[in-house]
Every structure is written in structure tokens, then in C-alpha cells.
């Protein structure tokens, strides 16, 4: 009898502990369910497949297209303005390529070796113990060769051929000293009293040793003595900077600027279409 009472008490105490720990009880069930779920996933992944890859390995994600849904062929969503811009550029590039005169840019002109660095152009030539260097930039250098003919009966005025006429620097280096010229194209052929027709003019002259700086003195070509100015023009011609060379420089700059412009249009088209 006493023994039966002890057993009943132990049984009641065990039930009482069980009731006091519902969280532990739930955790045990949850833990069992979790193990069962994990085991099921493992079976789906490895079961039924001899190579151990299972169902998850056979799942392939459908690749998403980057093309716009409107059917225009552009690589992303776009505005109406972007679409119209791409359409215009496609036609404009085709027209500019038709008008392209020189597809391959020469690497030498009249003995001057040509070096290109984006919009910067450098031409160099050795002449005895001297080095002649010509530098110019093609940006903002293109304009109509002649003024448009205005006729009241014409719908649109006729413009002359577009040409690049950059301001250019000429450096004549001898040892550590440099005689530098800044030159520009004249607005037209200017006749002097002696009958010369120069297509370029000297804007500025400077002479310095070592590196040029803002402190270096320079004199304007407009205030030079007329005879001194002519002598300097003759000096430039003897160094290869003649009217003929400067005309070729303009033709080169025109072709290079046009090629660079076409490349710019193509890059703008790719940017606008998201490519």
C-alpha cells in the first residue's frame, strides 16, 4: 500500500512537470517536424538520382530578356525621346558615312609624323639639329568654307563645304631654346602689297629657354614691324610651314574631325539604346 502511494505520487509529479513545461513539449514536436522536413528536402535533392543532384539540380531558371517589351530592339526600358534619338542617329550615321572622304587617317604629312590623342594632334619633324613641332586641337574648328548665298527665291541658303581650320602652335626647338608661334587661318586670301596670298597669319611670337610658362613674354603679330613679320613668315616657310602645308593641315584636320564626329554619334547611339 505504501509502495503504491509512492508510485502514484511519482506519476502525478511527472504529469505536473509535463504541464509546467509546454514550451519544451512543443519544442520537441517542432524539432521532430523540422528534422522530418529537413530529411524530406535531403531526399528530394538526392533521392531518385544516381548522380546525387536530384530534383533541385534539374531545375533551370528561365533567362530573362534585357530587350524592351515594345519590340524596338533596345536593351532596356526607355523614354519616347530616347527612342526617337536612336532612330535619328541611325539615319544620321548612315548619311555621315556616305559623306566621309577619308576613312584612314594618314600617319605622315610632308615629312611630319602624326600623333593623335583624342582631340589633340601633334606633328613633328627633324630638320638638322632642330625639331619642328606643330600642335592643334580639332574641337570647335569646323565652319563653312564660304558664306551662304542668300537668294530670295531659294527655300534654303546654300552653304559652302564644311572645313576644319584650327588655331595651331609651331615650336622650333634648338637645344634648350624654343622659338614659338601661334598661328591661325585668315578669313580669306589677303593680298599684301608684294602680291603674297597667305592663308594663315602669325598671331603671337615667343622665345624662351626650358619650359614655357605663363610668365614667358610674347609679342602680338599685329604690332610686329611689317618687315620683321614678313621675315618670320619666310622663316616658317623654310621650316616647312608653308601655305601648301597649312592647306594640307586643314584637310587632315577636317577628315580627322569628321571621323571623330561619326565615332561620337555611334557612342551616343549605344548610350541611348542602353548597349
Extended strand count: 10
Structural class: alpha+beta
> What Rg do the Cα atoms give?
41 Å
Overall, the morphology is elongated
Quick structural summary:
With 275 residues, the chain is of the alpha+beta class. 40% of the residues lie in helices and 25% in strands. Helix 4 packs antiparallel against helix 6 (243-273).
Task: Write up what this structure looks like.
This protein has 275 residues and is an alpha+beta fold. It contains 6 helices and 10 strands; from the N terminus they run ααααββββββββββαα. It has helices spanning 2-20, 22-46, 54-57, 80-98, 226-238, 243-273, and strands at residues 108-109, 112-117, 120-127, 130-137, 142-144, 162-164, 168-174, 177-191, 197-209, 218-220. The N and C termini lie far apart (93 Å).
Layout: helices, strands, pairs:
Layout: H1 2-20, H2 22-46, H3 54-57, H4 80-98, E1 108-109, E2 112-117, E3 120-127, E4 130-137, E5 142-144, E6 162-164, E7 168-174, E8 177-191, E9 197-209, E10 218-220, H5 226-238, H6 243-273
Antiparallel strand pairs: 1-2, 2-3, 3-4, 4-7, 5-6, 7-8, 8-9, 9-10
Helix pairs in contact: 4-6
Amino acid at each position: 500500500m505504501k509502495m503504491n502511494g509512492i508510485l502514484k505520487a511519482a506519476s502525478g509529479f511527472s504529469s505536473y512537470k509535463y504541464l509546467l513545461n509546454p514550451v519544451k513539449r512543443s519544442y520537441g514536436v517542432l524539432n521532430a517536424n523540422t528534422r522530418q522536413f529537413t530529411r524530406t528536402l535531403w531526399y528530394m535533392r538526392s533521392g531518385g538520382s544516381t548522380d546525387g543532384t536530384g530534383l533541385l539540380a534539374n531545375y533551370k531558371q528561365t533567362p530573362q530578356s534585357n530587350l524592351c517589351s515594345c519590340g524596338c530592339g533596345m536593351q532596356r526600358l526607355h523614354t519616347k525621346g530616347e527612342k526617337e534619338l536612336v532612330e535619328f542617329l541611325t539615319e544620321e550615321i548612315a548619311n555621315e558615312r556616305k559623306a566621309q572622304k577619308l576613312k584612314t587617317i594618314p600617319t605622315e604629312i610632308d615629312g611630319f609624323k602624326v600623333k593623335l590623342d583624342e582631340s589633340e594632334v601633334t606633328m613633328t619633324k627633324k630638320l638638322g639639329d632642330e625639331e619642328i613641332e606643330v600642335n592643334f586641337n580639332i574641337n570647335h574648328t569646323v565652319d563653312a568654307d564660304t558664306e551662304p548665298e542668300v537668294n530670295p527665291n531659294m527655300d534654303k541658303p546654300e552653304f559652302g563645304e564644311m572645313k576644319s581650320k584650327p588655331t595651331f602652335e609651331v615650336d622650333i626647338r634648338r637645344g634648350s631654346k624654343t622659338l614659338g608661334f601661334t598661328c591661325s587661318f585668315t578669313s580669306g586670301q589677303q593680298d599684301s602689297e608684294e602680291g603674297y596670298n597667305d592663308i594663315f597669319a602669325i598671331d603671337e611670337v615667343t622665345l624662351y629657354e626650358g619650359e614655357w610658362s605663363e610668365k614667358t613674354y610674347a609679342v602680338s603679330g599685329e604690332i610686329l614691324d611689317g618687315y620683321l613679320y614678313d621675315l618670320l613668315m619666310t622663316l616658317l616657310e623654310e621650316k616647312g610651314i608653308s601655305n601648301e602645308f597649312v592647306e594640307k593641315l586643314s584637310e587632315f584636320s577636317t577628315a580627322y574631325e569628321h571621323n571623330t564626329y561619326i565615332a561620337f554619334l555611334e557612342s551616343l547611339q549605344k548610350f541611348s539604346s542602353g548597349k
